[in-house]
Protein: Helix-turn-helix transcriptional regulator
Amino acid sequence: MQYRQYTPIDSLKHLVRYYWSLDGRQDSISRLSIESFADRYPRLIFQDIDCFEPIINSTGEEMPLCYLKGVRTRPTEAFMHGAFSHFGVAFYPHALSNFFGIDSDELTDTTPNINLVCRCDLGERLRFKTHAERVAILDGFLLGKMTKLCLDFTVQSIIHKKGKVSDMEMLASALRISERQLQRRFKKQVGISLKRYQRVSRFELALKRLATVHYSELTSIAFELDYTDQSHFIKEFQEFAEMSPYNFVRNKSVGAESSSFLYIPIR
Structure:
């Protein structure tokens, strides 16, 4: 697989992490399982269905030409052929509400057709284009959406905060709002509660650590990420990945857009 990231224009960087492309030409693999875990970063995904077969979701339905993937709090599975071409946007957690003017909790754990969220012909505009041309199209599309933005800078400051998010009561006090206000504003912008966001963030850190260490270091990872103990770590990992840390390490991904995905050949 060939994976590449592209940088958005500067005026989008507080809402767009990067654009990405993922191309596979493995015709020998008739079917790939896409294991998607809990993920705090929403996405826009365009798939080239003119030259390749579409992604099939867990209920057997074809995914749209261009669709959004909201913040995920539970694992999902989809399937596709080993030959494909995908292009997408990796957003920051609060981006969808700002670009599309809806409460993000309406998009949590959903994958709606982009045309159901906004009236646009984005999917058609991305067809028969190079990835570089798609970057320019999306820069223009998202920049146009920014004219209607009303950013919540309190939520944005949490999203872009480096390191661990502090205690909720202390955080609300520092921002000079009530804890209840903080919770309500955060969920409206991001789609999940701040507490759940913190748990998913910690799970994502665990995925990255497991990708670079041996399974025998599980206890040290649990301690490092402030889990109560190894048992607590394994239980929460299974909740968000529907597999144990051991099985995650054992599975060999043939390529992924982030550590929150596994692409596993089905023989």
